[in-house]
Specification:
alpha/beta; Rossmann fold; eight-stranded mixed β-sheet
Length: 315
């Protein structure tokens, strides 16, 4: 009986090894040098500036004379492209600065291999210093929202207004996690992330964060795949999931005393809408707008609807 059990375990082990080998062979996707991606994904007005040894992908649009620029920060596995439809509207009256965070988009990994919130807070403040922007309006989605409010808490004299879009910050319990995120957070399996990138997995992951998955187009999937394949980004994603704050800094949210707009997708399954209510409760001077039919990235899913609320807030 014991011999049979050992034999069965051996067969299952070999079957697993074979399955993983086939998976890697059929979905192998090597890292892409940033030079292979810039022509399509970083045309004008994109620029690259050196900061902390990084060649930061940046877009600085709208009137340069604007004394109070809007700075927008994307979320995990995203890029500055997520804001472009907002920027097209806002740049007619405002200077709008967007960037790819270290470890994402075309900026790529940092030398320290550190993607903790504090590193990102310093990155944003140092980037603003590099651009000679002393005071600004700061917005962010998901991880970007968490970085935004932590910047405001760390340097309140520099942030005039805050825009939180389905922001992280509390110790939240997801209703559903995108497949790609689940794999990147799972030991052993996350090693596959650096070798493979099945298109079907990427599409399912994006559809998971949309309120209406039918809005996910092949072109959108192409963009997410291209920026994920940027050399070093998949390794950085695994590292980032090992450095999550997990709500450890949430008490700082109550220290925020500045005009704050909270936007949330009512169908957000990653950071459910109840956490929007927590931000609204803990930030005294805040406005809350929930979009019942949208998901975790409302600025991308329905830019026209959501940016109208932002314009009103800015007025």
């Amino acid at each position: 009986m014991l011999k049979r059990s050992v034999q069965l375990a051996g067969v299952l082990f070999l079957a697993c090894i074979f399955f993983l080998a086939v998976l890697v062979a059929t979905t192998w996707a090597p890292d892409q040098p940033v030079a292979n991606l810039t022509q399509k994904w970083a045309p004008a007005p994109s620029t690259f500036i050196n900061l902390h040894g990084l060649n930061v992908h940046l877009r600085d649009q709208g009137p340069a004379s604007d004394p109070l620029p809007i700075v927008l920060i994307h979320g995990t596995s995203s890029s500055l492209h997520t804001w472009e439809a907002w920027v097209d509207v806002l740049k007619t009256q405002h200077r709008v600065i967007t960037m790819d965070l270290p470890g994402f988009g075309l900026t790529g990994p940092n030398v320290q291999d550190d993607y903790s919130n504090q590193v990102y807070v310093h990155f944003i403040l140092d980037l603003m210093d590099k651009l000679s922007v002393q005071r600004f309006i700061l917005g962010g989605n998901s991880l970007g929202g968490e970085i935004a409010w932590q910047v405001a808490a760390s340097a309140p004299e520099r942030v005039a207004k805050l825009i939180l879009v389905d922001a992280a910050g509390y110790a939240f319990t997801p209703e559903s996690i995108p497949l790609g995120f689940r794999i990147a957070r799972t030991p052993v399996l996350n090693k596959l992330v650096e070798l493979t990138l099945p298109r079907d997995m990427m599409e399912k992951s994006i559809r998971n964060v949309y309120g209406n998955p039918e809005k996910v187009t092949p072109e959108l999937v192409d963009r997410y795949i291209a920026t994920t394949l940027r050399a070093g980004n998949r390794h950085a994603l695994v590292r980032r999931f090992g450095q999550l704050d997990g709500g450890a800094s949430a008490d700082k949210i109550k220290s925020l005393h500045l005009p704050t707009l909270i936007l949330w997708g009512g169908k957000d399954k990653l950071i459910p809408v109840k956490y929007a209510q927590e931000f609204h409760r803990d930030i005294p001077d805040s406005q809350l707008q929930i979009f019942d039919q949208l998901g975790h990235v409302p600025q991308e899913e329905d830019a026209a609807l959501t940016v109208k609320v932002v314009q009103e807030f800015l007025r």
